[in-house]
Design a protein that fits this description.
Blueprint: E1 3-6, E2 9-16, E3 32-35, H1 49-52, E4 58-61, H2 78-91, E5 97-102, H3 104-115, E6 120-126, H4 134-149, H5 152-163, H6 172-184, H7 191-200, E7 217-222, H8 230-234, E8 243-248, H9 255-258, H10 260-270
Parallel strand pairs: 3-4, 3-5, 5-6, 6-7, 7-8
Antiparallel strand pairs: 1-2, 2-4
Length: about 270
């Protein structure tokens, strides 16, 4: 997998070439930048990669403090992450692109669209208002502290409570399989990297300059999401003049894992022929 030297990082990213090089109109489609959420890296997009790359080339970076991006850990905040992504796209000579971001990655997408409004054609923010709330910072701070004090098995089981619907836990075998897979992942986020990322969450408290965003925005909520529920995202509807909201049923925060086909449908419908 490729790396680029950007903003003091050796930034790891995945590149997935479009399977078909044009949209329904026959015109070339823009690439999609997929931005992962808190404690996640490029691998978190695995369930939707093949569906999203039908007409769009995908650029999928590992955010600082995640995956194979180095150094790790490293100081992080929203401004640094915005610079990371734009520098990566500069190095790849991609002037115009779509953003699909999940959770913190969606909040990062809002900030990039505000920082470089002439470069973002469409923002799809999944489970992602423009800014975080203090309660979620408190939650992740607690989760980070608990990870330092308890075994990884119990930490993952607690984290899964916020990611998946309740029926995920009906099968202990499935839960254990998910824990084992998470522990075995060779690029899992370490405790110090998680702590650094949590420390950077405070920089997401204030919204970016929303008035500077020119592109359409599509919000995707999940019916069972307890972190950023649909009613919270519905309150964002007035923040931008060109905004559409979709709710994916039978999914919690990790909507692109629980309902990948519906997630792909929502994204491609938003970006149709663009």
């Amino acid at each position: 997998m490729p790396f680029k030297a950007v903003n003091g990082l050796s930034m790891h990213y995945q590149w997935h070439e479009a399977l078909v090089q044009s949209g329904q109109s026959g015109q070339p489609t823009l690439p999609i930048v997929l931005l992962a959420g808190m404690a996640s890296d490029s691998a978190s997009w695995q369930p939707v990669i093949e569906g999203l790359r039908l007409n769009h080339t995908l650029i999928v970076p590992d955010n600082r403090c995640t995956g194979q991006t180095l150094p790790n850990p490293v100081a992080t905040d929203r401004a640094a992450m915005v610079t990371d992504v734009l520098a990566l796209l500069d190095s790849l000579e991609i002037p115009l692109f779509h953003i699909v971001g999940h959770s913190m990655g969606g909040m990062l997408g809002w900030a990039i669209a505000a920082e470089a409004p002439h470069r973002v054609a469409h923002l799809v923010a999944a489970a992602a208002p423009p800014s975080i709330i203090s309660a979620r910072i408190s939650l992740f701070s607690s989760l980070s502290a608990l990870r330092e004090q308890h075994t990884e098995e119990y930490w993952y089981k607690l984290l899964f409570q916020f990611l998946f619907k309740a029926d995920f836990f009906d099968s202990e075998a499935n839960v254990q399989a998910a824990v084992i897979a998470s522990q075995a992942y060779p690029h899992k986020q370490g405790m110090n990297a998680l702590a650094a990322q949590v420390a950077g969450l405070n920089s997401f408290l204030a919204p970016p300059d929303l008035a500077s965003i020119r592109c359409p925005v599509t919000l995707i909520a999940a019916s069972h999401d307890v972190l950023f529920p649909p009613d919270m995202l519905a309150q964002c509807q007035h923040l931008h003049p060109v905004m559409t909201t979709h709710v994916i049923d039978q999914a919690a925060h990790a909507m692109h894992w629980e309902q990948p086909e519906e997630f792909i449908r929502c994204v491609l419908a938003a970006l149709k022929d663009k």
